[in-house]
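Dear Dr. K.,

Following up on our conversation at the group meeting, I've run the structure prediction for Exlusion protein FxsA from Ureibacillus sinduriensis BLB-1 = JCM 15800. I'm pasting the input sequence below exactly as I used it, so you can double-check it against your construct before we proceed with anything downstream. Let me know if the numbering doesn't match what you have in your notebook.
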Amino acid sequence: MRKIIGALIAAILVEIAVFIVVGKLLGVLPTLLLIMLTSVIGALVAKKQGIESVRRLQTNLAEGNAPGVAIIDTFLIFAGGVLLVAPGFLTDLLGVSLILPYTRKLFKPAIYYWLRNKMKNGQMFIIHK
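The predicted structure tokens came back this morning:
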């Protein structure tokens, strides 16, 4: 828990530093407009991608296929959307990388590894009906 709080505080401090640097380069008003623009565009893209991902999830379930990949895609797109709506340039970069299919692939192995470890340690299990 302390690591998470420490990482969150560090991320906030880095975001503030980036705001200051970008604000000095572009000015206050353009920086604020850029932050608002990225939030709006990010929310729209995340909504579109999220709807497509939920449809794939529903299709997999309707066909009787395992929805594992679709669930992970949906989760990553949702997380990316949340990061895009949050103010900040670094969160926007991470959010875009979670939403775009090509860069989202880079995060999947880490998610699979984390899930396998949780299942191996008995902290997570799958119920078959």
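Two things stood out to me. The radius of gyration is 18 Å. The chain is about 85% helix and 0% strand.

Best regards,
J.T.
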